[in-house]
Amino acid sequence: MGTTISMREKLFFSGGLLGQNILYSFMSTYILFFYTDLLGISATTASAILVVASIFDACLDPLMGMITDKTRTRWGKFRPYLLFAPGLIAAATVLCFWDIGGSSTTTLVFATVSYLLWGMLYTVCDTPLWALSSVISKDPNERTLLVTLGKIGGMIGAVAITVGGIQLLLAFGGERDTHAYLYSAMIIAVIAAISIFLAGFHTKERVAPPAEQIPFRRNLQTIYKNKPLLTLLSALLIVNLVIGIRQSIQLYYVVYVWGDSSYISQLGMSLVVGMLLGMIVTPKLLRVFSHKRVFIISCILGSLSCLVPYFKGDGNITFTLVLFAVSFFFSGVTTIVSTSMLLDTIDYSEWKLGFRGEGIVFSTHTFITKFSGAVSKLIIGASLGLLNYIENQPATANLQQGLSFVMFVLPALCFVIAIIPILFYTLSNSQRNQMLIELETHRRSV
Fold it and tell me: How far apart are CA 196 and CA 217, in angstroms?
């Protein structure tokens, strides 16, 4: 199982995830603010739109996974979707940030439909792109490296929005100008579409699918008969809330607590430094410690680093930014560890059930990511409602305290709770190595 992935493939795969995360991060960071403060939709209603659409979209992910598992083309199982769908998701992104200038009812309907459309088309690109990492090589170390590079690319894309998104808006008129969002969305959508297309064009699928077409009902066994996958998904549902909550609340936090939207750039730099360092060191940690131990320790330390600025920040922005970076260091570690564990559950499926089911496994991953995002938006919407948030009004002490609680204490709790399901993850390093030996032996014999 030697190295088979070329440097060009690694770069374009990372670039595809960079483009994908530019889209996702722009949407996560700005769509709620755009709805409430630009289109005049109430915070409760806007949150309801995002939550309902996200849940609906998440429920489509397993179906998309099963569709990709049954796909057979001369381009492979997953690459065709990366070649033909990016233009559609780019168009849907622009629609989401288009102020049509109609009545409040018309605006509400258009916002709902466009966001639903965006979510469905995003799934068509998202599931195949991640599933591609499981068939690009048979070597688990190469796959972990590829996933790490992909996550780093994705993080760079997310940070490009966190740091540069506000600058792009300011260049077109500022965060209070609807045209600024539309023009920014156009630029971001084109960059993302090209990046995803190139990822599909310049990669190869090296793990051939079985000749036998697996029925949908049997394919579902990949989920409910895969205990390591179920425990991992439970942990991911919770730990993903750390990033989801912060992405949704950060613009409100810097505007109403720190008093200046430009601080979003400094926040982004803290995020990128922390996440990238965490992602870079994780493969080395996994050579020494088990996946399970690295995940648990990272969650404990991540929780502590979230709580310190809440209780000891005392309005010191620099101190808060440093601790923010530390907490995201541990988020970066859990991100790589969990994705490496996800790849192991695909091998486990092949070992236990006789088929890999890459598409449906990664669709459950994207389902959890989106469902977690929906829960994050629900939490933010409920929090803004409880805090009696009114757009464009001076911040009260109660609002500032509440936003700080959401920004720091809730993510700390999520880190801790995520430990509980991962305690039941049963796939050890020694079991994984033995499983891989048996799988390779079986592949050579057929």
Answer: 31
Helices (H), 354-396: 358-386
- Identify whether 1 is part of a domain: no
For the chain, the domain total comes to 1
CATH of the domain at 433: 1.20.1250.20
Which range marks the domain in which residue 94 is found? 7-203+215-445
Question: pLDDT 10s per residue in the chain (446 long)?
Answer: 444 778 888 899 999 999 998 998 899 888 988 998 889 898 888 888 888 887 887 778 778 877 877 777 778 888 889 999 999 999 999 999 999 887 889 999 999 999 999 988 988 888 888 878 878 877 777 877 787 888 888 878 877 887 788 889 989 988 888 899 999 999 999 999 999 999 989 888 877 666 666 666 676 777 778 889 999 999 999 999 998 898 788 888 888 888 887 787 788 788 888 988 998 899 889 888 999 999 999 999 999 999 999 988 667 888 999 999 999 999 999 988 998 898 888 888 888 877 777 777 877 877 888 788 878 888 888 888 888 887 767 778 888 899 999 999 999 999 999 999 999 998 887 887 888 788 777 767 65
Q: Which helix (H) or strand (E) holds 212?
A: none
Q: Which two tokens stand for residue 185?
A: 């969305």
| DSSP state string for 328-363 | HHHHHHHHHHHHHHHHHHHHHHHHHHS---HHHHHH
Q: What is the pTM of this model?
A: 0.71
In-domain check, residue 101? yes
For residue 349, tell me if it sits in a domain.
yes
Has residue 416 been placed in a domain?
yes
Tokens 């948030």, residue located: 389
